Amino acid sequence: MRVYALVCFTVFLDLLGLGIIIPIQPFYVESFGASPSTVTMLGAAYALMQFLFVPVWGRLSDRVGRRPIILTSVAASVVGWTLFGLAESLWLVFAARMMSGFGNANIATAQAALADITTQQERAKAMGFVGASIGLGFILGPAAGGLLSQTEQWGPLLPIYAAAALSLVNWILALLFFPETLPPEKRSRESKSPAGFSLQRYRESKAWPGVPRLLVLMLVMATASTIMEHSIGLWLERVWLWDGGVQPDPSKLPEVHRQAAILTAYVLLTFGIVTVIIQGGLVGHLVRRFGEVKLILVGLLLIASALSAIPMCAGLGVASIFPVFGLMAIGSAITDPSISSLLSRSVPDTDQGRALGLGRSMASLGRVIGPSTAGFLLELRWGLPFGVAAALMLVALLVALKLRRVRPTTPVEPNEPAKDHRPAHGD
């Protein structure tokens, strides 16, 4: 239980720091004169680094252990956040976010640490704890970021420096208390140097039945999710804070940005509260009763429905957005840990870091594609990103229809035929 708490607390602090700047990042970048497409490309730059380095951290952790990877990655996050606050030009803003993406590419390593200390039957519950930690970070982070950004003297800089300070605290706590969960005898002895995602590694994953479909599912879901995430703040600003869709006078923009930041924070706070309630107290019970596959199918349908409803809220008033995000949170809360659990249980124990890292890398690729297109979709039509995201979620639902439950795995090498991955009866 001590390791559970330390791993989840590390993830929580990581996501708390990230959550703090979510409400203010679009408007902070707008202050440099950036267009919506440039604003969302910043999210793509952050995700690109995660795409490249999540599998590197995951595979390295299989070889050298989880603790050194956590320490190194969190230290990089401290540097990235500090540079972000000190930036005086748009190129340095991008460089800082890329450094933070490099550092924050450690979620798969944290998940692997929990997989090290849990049985396969407990895996979904453990992934639910990680999801709850992420959700709690998104409860407190955006709320704190929105409130801290209201100070006239510091504006958006205060949340950024707060994120840097939290990352530093995270590193100190990890240095003092984070245990090594992967003993030397269980570490991978693969001689090849770690590498990022490649088509060859995706092809190798076919040795694990069901894993390629899960990887595609993570890619499509992440693309849809990040289209929404990187559009919502700018959409809220223009729908409810611009007079008739016309940009306010430049002298009024700082006040508009502050109002948009706090509104975005409240919306994300709603999402985070519902996520924590579901993932912290219910997801383990739901998985035991219904299985991961059924939860994934229901969750995807709920998310698609919520995304489709967002543009309709423009004509209903600002209060209508909150139940829509509550519905979306329920879908995400039951889908994300179910996918991670199913992926983890589909591979041998010696390849947890590699498989989860590959999965996170696919998700990170989606987070590159999503923000890269979100800004352009916004510039075409303000409600378009949410319609596209809903359509992608329906594609994910089609992919998930052919998923099957898996029985506990037996150790196999990725280039050998897998054993004991038979579909459970009745699925």
Describe the structure.
- The protein has 427 residues and is mainly alpha-helical.
- It has a single domain, classed as MFS general substrate transporter like domains (Growth Hormone, Chain: A, Up-down Bundle), CATH 1.20.1250.20.
- 72% of the residues lie in helices and 0% in strands.
- The chain contains 16 helices and no strands.
- Helix 1 packs antiparallel against helix 8, helix 6 (107-116) runs antiparallel to helix 7 and helix 13 runs antiparallel to helix 16 (384-400).
- It is globular, with a radius of gyration of 21 Å.
- It starts with a helix and ends in a 27-residue tail after the last helix.
SSE order, as H and E?
HHHHHHHHHHHHHHHH
- Give the overall silhouette: globular
* CATH 2nd-level architecture: Up-down Bundle
CATH class division: Mainly Alpha
Estimate what percentage of residues fall within beta strands. under 5%
Total strands: 0
Outline the fold blueprint.
Elements: H1 2-21, H2 25-30, H3 36-64, H4 66-86, H5 90-103, H6 107-116, H7 123-148, H8 157-177, H9 199-204, H10 211-240, H11 253-281, H12 283-290, H13 292-309, H14 321-345, H15 352-380, H16 384-400
Helix pairs in contact: 1-6, 1-7, 1-8, 3-4, 3-5, 3-6, 3-15, 4-5, 4-8, 6-7, 6-15, 7-11, 7-12, 7-14, 10-11, 10-15, 10-16, 11-14, 12-13, 13-14, 13-16
